[in-house]
């Protein structure tokens, strides 16, 4: 090989090395973490910031439409001194909902708090497979019987609300009939000063095409909605009764309960064992309990996930991974429990 050929080969080798390095580089970290990871996104594609002087919109170019086509994950940061109860928005096709809201994006992950609507087929899980089967529970201020645009056929929540899966944990939409361009995002509880929330909509043509109207506000309250939520686990945690995951699980039947706290009330609690929803009961005093029965499950890994939703839209999520095992009985060898 001549000198010129060797130089060319060396250059091509270096170039290929650069391509491999670039191809293997991780995706950029999201700029706006007010939104959780949803399908292809790790944060908000658009962030609306509200101040006392007005509103502004920023776009994170590293975050595409979360399902890869035409749906946007949108965060709202309240940097004003008043709580935000509603926010008018406008853009071409912004409210032309389909069946791929952030609770049903077509592929995981989905936000914690997206749960199967009561009445969906047994075994339904919120794995991002699409449709109207999953949503956040209606927030406390959403009027009973609300039917979100484009969802007249999906299952209804017990209060008659038809969510379409685009709502966030504290929001619902008010959209004029057959009007896909303008609408209002309502928040319950209102977004307190210093707090944030998120929801999803159809993608606007561009960040400049997304228009924000004058927010409906109330006098400001403490950031985060007032009462601080407890952790999921631990001595002061909300979820009690689960064995420690640090050792293999020989006990196959136990009962968990959701601890009650002054100033916090619960509207929903959902328990999954290996992605299958299990039974749960609520006493008159508001106490949630759920029997966990692992008998009959094959030996191996068991994932228990609990989601608790408060009356103010707060969400407590806990997950524990167990490895079932056998207990050796003295003089009897190894026996299955």
- Distance between the terminal alpha carbons, to the nearest Å? 71 Å
Count of alpha/pi helices: 1
**N-to-C SSE series?**
HEEEEEEEEEEEEEEEEEEEEE
Number-wise, the strands total 21
Poorly predicted regions are 11-27, 328-337
* Rg from alpha-carbon coordinates: 24 Å
Shape: globular
Biggest sheet layout: 5 strands, antiparallel
| Estimated share of beta-strand residues | 25-35%
In helices, the fraction of residues equals: under 10%
Q: Provide the structure class.
A: mainly beta
Q: Would you tell me the overall average pLDDT?
A: 80
Task: Please characterize this protein's 3D structure.
The chain is mainly β and 337 residues long. Helix content is 7%, strand content 33%. It has one helix spanning 3-24; strands at residues 46-51, 54-59, 71-78, 82-90, 115-116, 134-135, 171-174, 182-191, 196-202, 211-212, 216-219, 239-240, 253-258, 266-273, 276-277, 281-282, 288-293, 301-310, 315-323, 327-329, 333-335. Strands 4, 7, 8, 10 and 11 form a 5-stranded antiparallel β-sheet that branches. A 4-stranded mixed β-sheet has the order 2-1-3-9, with no helix packed on it. A 4-stranded antiparallel β-sheet has the order 12-13-17-16, with no helix packed on it. The relative contact order is 0.13.
Give the tags.
337 residues, mainly beta, 1 helix
